[in-house]
Amino acid sequence: MKIGVLKTDDVRKELVGEFGEYPEMFAELLRSQDPELEFVTYEVQRGHFPDNIDEVDAYLITGSKTGVYEDKEWIPPLMEFVRKLHDAKKPTIGICFGHQLIAHALGGKTRKSDKGWGIGVHSYEMQETPAWMSEPMPSFSLLVSHQDQVEELPPGAKVLASSEFCPMAMVQVDDHMLTFQAHPEFTKTYSKSLMELRREAFGEELADKGHASLQNDIHESAVARWMVEFLRK
User: Fold this and answer.
1) How far apart are CA 38 and CA 30, in angstroms?
2) What's the rounded Cα separation, in Å, for the pair 211 and 130?
3) Domains, the chain, ordered by start
4) Is the pTM for the entire model greater than 0.85?
5) Catalytic annotation on 166?
6) Is 18 a known active-site residue?
7) Per-residue pLDDT reduced to its tens digit, 200-209
8) Active site residue: 86, 99, 104, 183, which one?
9) What is the pLDDT of residues 7-22, one digit of tens each?
């Protein structure tokens, strides 16, 4: 299987030497479950899109510091591309910004949440267990870094997992799109470094709380397995 990574942001220059770029993070995560996976990166933030949606077997939209509602010239073409993927029933996964953009492009709503920033480790309760999930869990935890949230689902979407802080944390659209607000590709070391760089933006109290949460378990391997299962089903 060949996965096209629609790259919507760059890792901060202070961190890229140690952690690499987002496509490398996703390749490492998903190859832990399927070493035969191939990846192609499309710099959609710079206007680079596939010439044909069937160049690859499936797509993954990365996270971004950009809001889906911001006036950036590459966002409307990306939303149109998402609608084409949806019409073609192309297997697609969205992470954080990708999760929000898929919802927004297909008729839902993403806004800056009045709950503020979510950082560190967050936990989610499963609301529904889909048939494609071979090893379901009642709950799972992942690393997060977001202040925007999906607040209205698009037609054909259902919530698979939620929390009080993020009610629409894991969403499936029909049978071909799966999205997560959290970041399964993040490691705790990367999350810690990112929180330190953004400590001033987060505020001392929230940053300290985010750091403390890193002692909690995360379930990135289980979520990676779900992602591969969903794409291969």
Assistant:
1) 10
2) 33
3) 2-232 (3.40.50.880)
4) yes
5) no
6) no
7) 999 999 999 9
8) 183
9) 999 999 999 999 999 9
